[in-house]
Write a structure and sequence with these properties.
By secondary structure, the protein is of the alpha/beta class. It folds into two domains: about 160 residues, Rossmann fold (3-Layer(aba) Sandwich); about 70 residues, no CATH class. Helices cover about 30% and strands about 25% of the residues. It has seven helices and ten strands. The protein has a six-stranded mixed β-sheet with strand order 6-7-8-3-9-10, sandwiched between helices. Strands 2-1-4-5 form a four-stranded antiparallel β-sheet, with helices on one face. α3 packs across α4 and α4 packs across α5.
């Protein structure tokens, strides 16, 4: 579904590459955590998958298409196949919950009757039924993130990218958002989540890809946030 082949990415006036010869492959229907310190390259990976950036070297493939050589006029079509969720929600403040989600369908030319059916369905799925007429400032942070997820998922994209989606939320709210992303993944959507949320990673035990200064240093199935120490509740050899 997503494949990086020896991808290196430099940014202007930065001598060290943001990504350095990265090769990873993420299959259809997987749930993958991208972890690592700030500046490790997580956001660069997500930007490359969206085709917001191009690699300095190497190739990026999404659903079998080489993004490195994709024509500019095909990029909007490519992005329609992606749902993207951000840490800061990025909702339209002057629009209602319903209008924020509907907007994602309007921009790709969906008919009104399709929108009228799809939006209430996805709002119910994310737990926001009855709040269609509220505006973002009338919602909690967790509710705003649920709107953002509904907007990202309403077109049923095969891939959902989440860049620090729990970064501004408390642990209980974060758990609810994680359950929602897991539910979306169970429908067959590939989910790639960049995160610093150690508790979430350790609890959910999905595949973990760790980046350090642009290099993949770990790719672990059912991994934890920090492989150098046991997850909470586990004993080291010396403790046992």
């Amino acid at each position: 579904m997503i494949r990086f082949e020896n991808v290196t990415k430099f940014y202007a006036r930065t001598p060290r590459p943001a990504l350095d010869d990265v090769s990873i492959e993420i299959g259809r229907g997987e749930f993958v955590f991208l972890v690592g310190a700030s500046g490790s390259g997580k956001t660069s990976c997500i930007s490359l998958v969206q085709r917001e950036e191009r690699p300095s070297a190497g190739k990026v493939f999404v659903a079998g298409r080489d993004l490195s050589s994709m024509s500019a006029w095909k990029v909007p079509e490519h992005r329609r196949k992606l749902g993207v969720v951000f840490q800061d929600f990025r909702l339209l403040p002057d629009k209602t919950v319903y209008e924020n989600v509907a907007f994602a369908l309007q921009v790709i030319g969906k008919k009104r009757h399709t929108i009228r059916l799809a939006v209430p369905e996805v709002l119910e799925m994310v737990g926001l039924a009855g709040k269609e007429k509220r505006r973002p400032h009338e919602l909690s942070g967790g509710e705003q993130q649920r709107v953002a997820i509904a907007r990202a998922y309403v077109n049923r994209p095969p891939i959902l990218l989440a860049d620090e989606p729990t970064g501004n939320l408390d642990p209980t709210t974060s758990l609810g958002i994680m359950r929602l992303l897991d539910q979306i993944n169970l429908t067959g959507t590939t989910v790639v989540m960049a995160t610093h949320d150690e508790e979430i990673v350790n609890q959910w035990r999905k595949r973990v890809i760790e980046l350090d200064e642009g290099v993949v240093v770990r790719d672990q199935p059912e991994g934890i946030y920090d492989s150098s120490r046991p997850a909470r509740g586990e004993l080291t050899v010396s403790e046992a």
